[in-house]
Amino acid sequence: MEGDTFSGMDGKVVQNFQKSFVQVQNILDQNRLLINEINQNHESKIPDNLSRNVGLIRELNNNIRRVVDLYSDLSTSFSKSMDASSEGDSSGAFKSDGKAGAFKRHRPGS
């Protein structure tokens, strides 16, 4: 199944994608636990627990930044791999301009 999703892509690129997705999933799982603990502390209204939430929320924010960075890196890697795979393609199909989600049409002679 995974082979179908990434067919035609370099094995190392696929490995990097999979590694990044695993990292993202691990961070999201950790965030779920942090959010549960933050909610429990908030509901308890115990001053020490509420103070602890400050650190937990900072950790949550840092984790979210890490996820954004990982997705940004994935987007860049994907764009580069698509550029590399389309360099040999002279069909005039779409060619990535290196920006996530943005493509420009490649016109022969330009």
From TrEMBL:
- Keyword Electron transport assigned to the entry: answer is no
Q: Which residues form the Protein EARLY FLOWERING domain?
A: 9-89
List every stretch annotated Disordered: 79-110
One cellular component (GO) term of this entry: nucleus
What main location does UniProt list? nucleus
Matching InterPro entries, A to Z?
A: EARLY_FLOWERING_4, EARLY_FLOWERING_4_dom
Compartment(s) of residence = Nucleus
Q: Which residues form a coiled coil?
A: none
Biased composition range(s): Polar residues: 79-89
Signal peptide start and end residues: none
Which keywords does this Swiss-Prot/TrEMBL entry list?
Biological rhythms, Nucleus
- Name the Pfam families for this protein: Elf4
- GO biological processes: rhythmic process
Tell me the PANTHER family matching this sequence. Answer: PROTEIN ELF4-LIKE 4 (PTHR33469)
Q: Which family does it belong to?
A: Belongs to the EARLY FLOWERING 4 family.
- Protein name as catalogued: Protein ELF4-LIKE 2
- Which organism encodes this protein? Salvia divinorum (Maria pastora)
Name of encoding gene: EFL2
